[in-house]
Write a structure and sequence with these properties.
The complex is a heterodimer. Chain A is mainly alpha-helical. Chain A is about 75% helix and about 0% strand. Chain A is globular, with a radius of gyration of 25 Å. The two termini of chain A are about 50 Å apart. About 0% of the residues of chain A have low confidence. Chain B has one domain: Rossmann fold (3-Layer(aba) Sandwich), CATH 3.40.50.300. In chain B, the strands form 2 sheets. Chain B has a 6-stranded mixed β-sheet, sandwiched between helices. In chain B, strands 2-1-4-5 form a 4-stranded antiparallel β-sheet, covered by helices on one side. Chain B is globular, with a radius of gyration of 17 Å. Chain B is of the alpha/beta class. In chain B, α2 packs parallel to α4 and α3 runs antiparallel to α4. The chains are: A mainly alpha, B alpha/beta. The interface between A and B is medium-sized, with 21 and 27 residues.
């Protein structure tokens, strides 16, 4: 029955072959990790254990931050089993145990490879692995507990923001913490030796076990008294409040209307999500540029252009233009032009992405003193790349729509976003390289604007004249 | 037996029900009738998912519906046909049988019988997601009969069924009732209700429950409906 429950709650389809593949890839990654440490860091093997523990906890926490609140609170499939005699504890434990098993696999893969490099320290590696997994489980339970508290006690109209803030805030905190910790370790290897002295799993095992059981009890209480009511609150937020009056729209164009209605189902959340993307990109870019100077991407406005183009690329509206449109099944028997609907979808994506571009641009103007002409060029570049990325995201989703199989309807379209991000970054890097090496004798910003005009023109022509693109 | 005590349900400021009470007894088929959007599904959800109620209590066979044991005493077929789409019909039915602690051997026999009756025996190994709307409804209904619970709560069960399956379902429901069980279903089809149920639960225009015996006459039933609900 548990297997069926997993299938219902988590849409899990993983076959034995898939699991074996994961194990092989995981085993290889674990081996590679130890190989790299032993080759490039001249400390004894036992010193790396701390570093591996750190990396494993970091990886598992990131996974837990994204998976647990989604699968526990926004998972729409839980609703299907609520009227069956399945206790809430079974639902929650099914979700948490599955994540814990995956995390156990990660710990096992990470520490298992140490046996190949120093077999005599197997006992220590085992202890470190178990301690690491227990710490990760404590983190999982804490995340589950916070998610239940948010869902139960925050006002229904705020639930979605609460979850995004929690997931995003903790993600950012974990990433910043990781970068802050990893950079000194890699640059001053004697830190590893000092940390090895401090971090002795056997010394802390009792406290860890105690915290584990304490959290387990707290979580049990939270599940018993708060979970289901909290879950229903989140569902009410996701599907809009019944009886809420919506003002009649003034949009007359049917294509614009249908797309506007799709996007504005939850416009506040979309806007919030855009700001979140922007902040992530800015913070990550700053961290990358500050800590990894060896990228050697030099030139005026490189620091502004790369984050700006990244902001344009991560456009949720365009990357879910078709997969997030439940009405698309009816377009086939309505007099709707595929070309026109595509155009309006890209315009809509552009419109929402532009809010991010403008916010970013205002930030640059306020905090960095740049000439007016360059500021205008930067805005033009941002807007053009925004349309180009919106077009690319929409086109990818049109040709290969990814179904919203995730347990959270708000979080799909990530594959499309990543492809657009890679293409647009590659284009910008090429522009930087060509101007930096003076292969092109124009300065970076005007050249980038000209290139982006060309890209947009190619995209528009493809829509207007490409006969095979749409089935009109 | 389902006992509703002063049930209240609100969506924000909008009151759907306020202090609604009623008693539904065993060995009866009840039809839940009301105009569109009056709250029939909300009422059924409130009975089956107590966490969705704001105030009041529901007792199912004398057990408070907030207690877990109450769930063993009813089976709810909701109006959604988008449930368990990634399971095969057979997987879903086995899952339900285990949840309701039915014996597997007994279930296999009954499942075979019901799937033949509903002409679903050749499709049970396909994913529910690939079923037509009527087939989905049939598989959820088979699950209801397999569960063997004392109370069946069905949201518009006849809606997407073909005429033959409607006849089959009516026959099965009457047999179920004769075993001393309770059936509550929502419907808009007054003709079907007039010739089939024992009692009718109207949700009137004031959003109160009005319970009456079935007059077994379509015209009379229509008059009551227009008087109370419209």
């Amino acid at each position: 029955m548990n297997r069926t429950l997993y299938k219902i709650l988590l849409r899990s389809k993983n076959s034995t072959i898939v699991w074996i593949s994961y194990v092989i890839v995981g085993g290889y990654m674990g081996y590679l990790l130890w190989y790299l440490w032993s080759r490039y860091i001249s400390e004894p093997v036992s010193s790396y254990r701390m570093l591996v523990s750190f990396l494993v906890i970091w990886l598992c926490t990131i996974a837990a931050i994204y998976q647990i609140p989604d699968q526990l609170c926004t998972n729409r499939y839980i609703k299907n089993v609520l009227c069956y005699p399945i206790s809430h504890k079974i639902i929650v434990s099914a979700i948490l145990v599955r994540i814990a098993v995956i995390q156990f696999g990660i710990c096992f893969m990470a520490f298992g490879s140490q046996f190949l490099f120093s077999p005599q320290q197997g006992k220590d590696a085992l202890l470190a692995g178990i301690t690491c997994w227990l710490l990760v489980c404590i983190g999982d339970m804490a995340i589950a507990l916070i998610s239940i508290i948010i869902s139960r006690f925050s006002p229904v109209s705020f639930e979605g923001y609460g979850f995004i803030s929690f997931q995003y805030g903790s993600f950012l905190a974990v990433v910043i913490l990781a970068v802050r910790a990893i950079v000194p370790i890699l640059s001053q290897t004697d830190i590893l030796l000092q940390m090895r002295e401090i971090w002795r799993p056997e010394k802390y095992l009792f406290s860890i076990l105690l915290s584990f059981f304490m959290l387990m009890i707290c979580l049990g209480i939270a599940i018993k008294y708060w979970y289901i009511r909290g879950y229903l609150n989140v569902q009410n937020f996701q599907y809009g409040s019944v009886g809420k009056e919506i003002k009649p729209t003034r949009i007359k164009n049917p294509y614009w209307l249908i797309e506007w209605k799709r996007v504005t189902r939850n416009k506040e959340l979309v806007f919030f999500s855009n700001i979140k993307n922007l902040l992530t990109i800015v913070v990550l870019s700053i961290l990358l540029f500050q800590n990894f100077g060896q990228f050697r991407l030099e030139g005026v406005y490189v620091m502004e252009m790369l984050p700006l183009v990244s902001c344009c690329a991560v456009n949720t509206i365009s990357s879910t233009a078709y997969s997030g449109d439940m009405n698309r099944f009816y377009y086939a028997f309505l007099p709707i032009s595929e070309r026109k609907i595509f155009l309006w979808k890209t315009v809509q994506g552009f419109f929402f992405g532009e809010s991010t571009v403008l916010l970013f641009w205002i930030g640059i103007i306020l905090f960095r003193s740049i000439p007016v002409v360059d500021a205008c060029l930067l805005l033009a570049y941002g807007s053009l790349m925004n349309y180009a990325c919106s077009w690319m995201g929409g086109f990818l989703d049109y040709k290969a729509p990814r179904m919203a199989n995730s347990t959270n309807e708000l979080l799909h379209g990530n594959t499309g976003k990543i492809i657009v991000l890679l293409v647009s970054i590659a284009l910008t890097v090429m522009e930087i390289y060509l101007t930096d090496k003076q292969i092109i004798s124009v300065s970076l910003l005007p050249f980038a604007v000209i290139t982006s005009i060309c890209v947009v023109m190619i995209e528009v022509s493809c829509c207007m004249f490409g006969k095979e693109v749409f089935h009109d | 037996m389902i006992k509703i005590n002063e049930l209240t349900k609100k969506y924000g400021d909008k009151i759907i029900f306020e202090k609604v009470s009623g008693l539904l007894e065993n060995r009866n088929i009840y039809a839940l009738v009301g105009t569109n959007g009056i709250g029939k599904t909300t009422m059924l959800n409130a009975i089956t998912q107590p966490a969705s109620m704001d105030e009041g209590t529901v007792e199912i066979d004398g057990i408070d519906s907030r207690l877990f044991q109450a769930k063993q005493n009813f089976f709810y077929v909701s109006d959604s046909k988008e449930m368990f789409l990634n399971l095969t019909g057979y997987e879903y039915l086995r899952f339900v049988t285990r949840l309701y602690h039915r014996r597997i051997e007994e279930m296999e026999e009954k499942l075979k019988e019901l799937s033949i009756t509903f002409k679903l025996d050749h499709s049970l190994n396909e994913c529910i997601g690939n079923y037509s709307l009527g087939m989905k409804q049939k598989v959820y209904l088979i699950a209801a009969f397999l569960s063997g619970t004392r109370n069946l709560i069905l949201d518009e069960p006849f809606n997407v069924l073909d005429p033959e399956s409607i006849v089959v379902l009516k026959k099965l429901l009457i047999e179920y009732k004769d075993k001393g069980k309770l059936i509550l279903f929502s419907s808009h089809n007054l003709d079907l209700i007039a010739n089939f149920c024992d009692s009718i639960v109207f949700i009137d225009k004031e959003r109160k429950i009005y319970l009456c015996k079935n007059p077994q006459d379509y015209t009379q039933l229509e008059n009551i409906f227009f008087q109370k609900c419209v």
